[in-house]
Amino acid sequence: MAGRHRLLLENAQQLVLVCGRGEEYLRREGAASLAVLQEASLVVGLDGCIKAVGRADVIRHQFSGATFERVIDCSGKCVLPGLVDAHTHPVWAGDRVHEFAMKLAGASYMEIHQAGGGIHFTVEHTRKATEEELFHTFKHRLERMRRAGSTLVECKSGYGLNLETELKMLRVIERAKQSMDIGISSTYCGAHSVPKGKTATEATDDIINNHLPKLKELKLSGEIHVNNIDVFCEKGVFDLDSTRRILQAGKDIGLQINFHGDELHPMKSAELGAELGARAISHLEEVSDEGIMAMARAKCAAVLLPTTAYMLRLKQPQARKMLEEGVIVALGSDFNPNAYCFSMPMVMHLACVNMKMSMNEALAAATINAAYALGKSDTHGSIETGKQGDLVIINSSRWEHLIYQFGGHEALIDYVIVKGKVIYQNERCGTMSSY
């Protein structure tokens, strides 16, 4: 196939497709045996999409007359889909390292919250920060996520709790969408906490009557494109009725429902999400058996966050039960001032050790299923012809090293690629040949 193309990755020891038949997601049976090619190559076109995947000799023959902007010899290495982080809170000012010490001394999440810490501490600092300051720190965090292999990241607002600051955060996310080589799914999370001086009902009314109409207006004008709506459905925050009202209002203006549920107390959030047609629900440490079955029937993804349970010493989400009941299980880092983790490889490792997932299940959860949770599994989450050329190359002959080497991704990842363009290259890698 003559012509010019953007990228050729050739002679990979393992090419981990994840999916091989255009699946939207993988349930337990599908995730048990991921699609993997041996001694394989792939081509990404000038449009950033994958043009061909197959045995190295077949691709070599098929593209014998072609030219490429870049060629990378992947002999002895593994190529995987770019990782997808399905839950983050990366736009904020003021870290909470002091609260980590409080947690270690035994303070609970809600005790810190009620003492004016937690979300309210971050809200205070984020309100004071300029848009430029927030963008600078957000950009730096996204760069660290990319170096750890993430090529598509869900990014929430939620540290404003008033219209002005929520819009400031969403503008920062929109700016990164337009200017950085990384995929972003943006989430309005104005119902992250009840603002000081308001009741939950007053905050709910403000969001429905003021915040959401403004988001609709900005979307129509092309200024801000928000993908998802989120609510922290929790005892002492937004109850089931308030959550229902906000999520339905968001759905009515075209936002995907993707919210926090059943984290600290059983709230029947999973049942509500299934009823409303939610694309995904996060946390679910306290989900009911009925909620699990409802999510499986509704094809509502469970975004599990092993860092949160680990750092807050909560009970682990019931990943095995969810998988056995047919729930679509995804993973996220929950990066935020309370769970400071950029690395999806570490998240997958924790999911395997603490939530008893297999490495295959964890990789599916951090690729195709995480993409599904964001409504993007038609373009992301697997290495298939027609999908976006988002890829990770690791310096190992077995892909499982990405999970096995806990905290070792910085030495293991050689290249991170978005739309066929190398956006991160490990300093030990030599220059790439072109022809």
From TrEMBL:
- Enzyme Commission number, as recorded: 3.5.2.7
Organism (species): Burhinus bistriatus
Q: Which family does it belong to?
A: Belongs to the metallo-dependent hydrolases superfamily. HutI family.
Q: What is the lineage of its organism?
A: Eukaryota, Metazoa, Chordata, Craniata, Vertebrata
For this UniProt record, the keywords arranged alphabetically read as follows: Histidine metabolism, Hydrolase, Iron, Metal-binding, Zinc
Q: Which InterPro entries match?
A: Amidohydro-rel, HutI, Metal-dep_hydrolase_composite, Metal_Hydrolase
User: SUPFAM superfamilies annotated for this entry?
Assistant: Composite domain of metallo-dependent hydrolases (SSF51338), Metallo-dependent hydrolases (SSF51556)
The name on file for this protein is Probable imidazolonepropionase
Entry's Gene3D superfamilies? Metal-dependent hydrolases (3.20.20.140), Urease, subunit C, domain 1 (2.30.40.10)
Signal peptide residues are none
Cofactor field: Fe(3+)
Catalyses which reaction(s): 4-imidazolone-5-propanoate + H2O = N-formimidoyl-L-glutamate
The answer to whether keyword Metal-binding applies is yes
**A Pfam cross-reference name:** Amidohydro_1
Against CDD domains, the record matches this protein to: Imidazolone-5PH (cd01296)
UniProt keyword annotation of rRNA-binding present: no
MF-aspect GO terms: imidazolonepropionase activity; metal ion binding
